Amino acid sequence: MRNKGIIAIFILVLITLIFSGCIDFLIDGSTTYESHPTKISYTLSYGYKVNCTSSDEFDLYEIRYDCDVPEVLNGQISSTVVNDNSYEDKTLATFNVVKSWDINSNVNKEYDLGITASVISESYSVADLNGANALSISEISSSLVDQYCRAQFNGTTAFIDPNNPNIKAKANEILSNAGTNNSFLVAKELFIWLKQQTAYRAHLTDNNVQPAEDTFQCKTGDCDDLSFLYISLCRSVGIPARFIRGFLIEEDTATPHAWVEVYVGGRIGNNGWIPVECAGVSANAETEVNQNFAIESADHLRLFMDDGSNESLDISLSGLSYVTYGTMVVEATYYSEVTDYTVLRSNELVIDENGNRSYS
Fold it and tell me: What's the domain range around 20?
């Protein structure tokens, strides 16, 4: 009977690992996940198609739109074509190059305000999950803390809110229980709490982003909501964090998406910043760490990076705007189209017994 019980437990564990995306766990303690694309190429077109019509030649319209230029963390943008050449180049919120349209006209016309880019993208990951070479929280420069550990408001609402007493108390509790000041390991513990205590849920009727406090209380949210809560938790204990906006790329779909970067310094990540995907759906926290903490898969395309300011938050939550005069009618339709999607390489993600991550 005892042997049957052991076998039953083994089968239950095996089923759990399979459904979490883990297809093998070896005697040496390593874990291997299902093979997935780790290098892809594709062409992406995105922006707004705007149709302006009126029967009166004196009717006017004004259109404003800033279209972010794409980037990849690991790979290259081999070409970028702007679909309407009446733009200006601008840099917004410190880092973000955009193609900007400021149109004032009375001409009946259809505009294509967008970009077509050819992309090669590869998965990026931090190999060591043990935090070696990361800075302690107290070693992080005060200038980064000042820039990336404050609240960010859109109007009067704090969407990123490290000063919220509930969020701050929970973050400090997690820090205390972690038993370390290593910024990488504390950020990992905060991520584990997020994955254990919250669940991804898309907004079905309301597209508005939730403030971090709302997500903390209801324990559900979409990619924006979960990212803002995680950023707030990190900032509460002095770990700089910022949001990234872009797309998740599939064979024929580009879905608007948001994720996070956390600063841990040292010789880790991209100049000390590590990517964190907060919207994973696995119920297993270890699986979420292995697949989504300090890793950015090839299907992520970057468009906008936060600089810690209220302006940055405002810009990231805005889109095309227009004003009409007289009987002028403006119809604006957002589009994002993927073509020529090709998998250049697929790999299994392997975590060895020492917490080292690699693709094979």
Answer: 2-34
Tokens found for residue 183: 């910024």
Residue-wise pLDDT for 147-182, tens only, equals 999 999 999 999 999 999 999 999 999 999 999 999
Q: Does a structural domain hold residue 306?
A: yes
Please indicate, yes or no, whether residues 59 and 146 belong to a single structural domain of this protein.
no
Q: Which of 133, 127, 239, 145 is nearest to 186 (CA)?
A: 239
User: Where is 39: in which H helix or E strand?
Assistant: strand 36-53
The region that residue 242 occupies, defined by phi over 0 for left and psi between -120 and 50 for alpha, beta otherwise, is beta
- Cβ–Cβ under 8 Å, residues 44 and 254: yes
SS3 3: helix
Nearest alpha carbon to residue 262 among 282, 284, 277, 281:
277
The pLDDT of residue 1: 44
Count Cβ neighbours within 10 Å for each residue of 242-277 and write b for 16 or more, e otherwise: bbbbbbbbeeeebeebbbbbbbbbbebbeebbbbbb
Flag whether 352 is in a domain.
no
Q: How many CA atoms lie within 13 A of 251 on its CB side?
A: 4
Question: With bands split at pLDDT 50, 70 and 90, how would you rate the model's confidence at 2?
Answer: very low
Beta carbons of 338 and 249 less than 8 angstroms apart: yes
pTM: 0.92
